[in-house]
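Recap quiz, item 2
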Amino acid sequence: MIASLLPLLSPGTLLAAAVTSTAASLWLLLPRGLTGTAERTSRWLGSLLGLAALACFIATGHRLGGLGDEAVFLIVSLVAVISGAATVVSRSPVYAAIWFALALAGVAGVLLVLGAQFLGVATIVVYAGAILVMFLFVLMLAQPAGMAPYDRVSNEPLLSAVAGAVLLGILSLTIGRLTAEPPACCLMPATKTALLAGSATAADGEATDSDRGSVDLLAENHVARLGGELFGRHLLAVEVAGVLLLVALIGSIAIVSRGGSGGGSGGGFGDGDARATRRAVS
Amino acid sequence: MTPAPLVLNGLVVGAILFALGLVGILARRNLIVMFLCAELMLQGISVSLVSWSRHHGDWGGHVLVIFVLTVAACEAAVALVFVLQAFSRTGRLDSAAWQSLRESNLPRVVDHELPAVDTVPHMFPRLTPAGIEPPVDEDALLEREQV
């Protein structure tokens, strides 16, 4: 029944519905200082609206040009998007970090489907393995007992949700315009098109043309070619990145060792740490 | 040249992740959650870059994403140190605790009707206690205090 309804709706209507329900669901889901039944109701409503927004987005993509052809891509991108939304709206920062780990797994899947094998694995290893664990360490060091009141309220939830949804709508419109036929005034003259097609390596039609470059990216020895590119054309940038890492390392050590002078004790987080230890012992 | 559907879908996923991160940065008040949202925006950018790289068929997007990873690692190291320092000064992870740093012509943020106490009980899983409780060793307690 839904499939028969789909052709009736124009992509613009679908996109407008998607943007509106995104804003409403984010507003309902963000912490607004509600408690008890009101909070639970608003979260349920928000989740339902969020699922509706996702369905609208998928339908828009379907109308625009075949979302859902790649089932694996659909699944991993749904994992990434849903857990990204849960990261944003989680009350507890620990849960937010764990949802973010799941979002990273989804993003790694998306990167793998897009043909970036090394980056997919690097996302898991570097982000989920190192950066996220560091976040969790800091959370465990700094999180006060129980749920803090400032985790249960937001700055301007309605305005932020609307801003994000409007940005999303504009970006989707721009992306959707990439597929559309250019208007008659901007059509290329036939000779120019022929010239372009002749200059491309594959001269036979749009399908091979649009997938032209993927031949190089999807070839064997993916990592070796990426390394060759990285240490060939971008050697100077690699050196600069190494210097940046060193500077960040030294800078963070300097901040920690000097930070205690304001608080009175030697260590950077000496007070909170000692208090936590005393609480654990008693 | 029209991009392939897969490239377009990757761009849409990147846009959604970026917008979600933006909402989080704007709305949340916990410093660490704001930071996680910034990382979410970086993830959206990475997905977009890889999509464009696939569209154009060169390695530029991949190389840029590697540098994004590097910069994210540096940024996380420095900013987490900042967060720890801020926490040791105020005892809170609240970004509004630092609003004295705002511009002089902006109004002060005042919290209305903050939920004072956590009314929802936490339902964390617990292991069932098993065996006998060992006797408390006073020396071990003293040592632990000094760690």
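Confidence is low (pLDDT under 50) at residues 198-214, 262-282 of chain A.
The two ends of chain A are 64 Å apart (CA to CA).
End of item.
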